[in-house]
Amino acid sequence: xxxxxxxxxxxxxxxxxxxxxxxxxxxxxxxxxxxxxxxxxxxxxxxxxxxxxxxxxxxxxxxxxxxxxxxxxxxxxxxxxxxxxxxxxxxxxxxxxxxxxxxxxxxxxxxxxxxxxxxxxxxxxxxxxxxxxxxxxxxxxxxxxxxxx
Length: 149
Fold this sequence. Notes:
Blueprint: H1 2-41, E1 47-48, E2 52-56, E3 65-68, E4 77-81, E5 87-91, E6 102-103, E7 108-109, E8 116-117, E9 123-125, E10 134-135, E11 137-140, E12 143-147
Antiparallel strand pairs: 1-2, 2-12, 3-4, 4-5, 5-10, 6-7, 7-8, 8-9, 11-12
């Protein structure tokens, strides 16, 4: 009887230790993932009013584009610095059925029905019949200003 009790205690302790190792390993892994995600998404600060969005021009010094979540629109805006030094702003909203489009390396793709759009918002492939909504953008000193129409 003594032998089976020791074996049972050993198995309980081994199970407890294994569960602890799994828990701490998983929480460390998830913590690392969440830290890297939040660092990328909170890097750009901007101010928003009812009719415009102001982004520091320095936000485009390392990356030529930013995806910004605004109060005005449910879908994010894609704001990019063009090779000629101007800026463009697009609503990441497919006009076909209202799905949020995904940014790829050289285009936007609608995950719902496969429409594709160029980085300037032009329609590349349907079923959408319209381009992405664009906004006028101006540069005022050190601020990139997206004007909501």
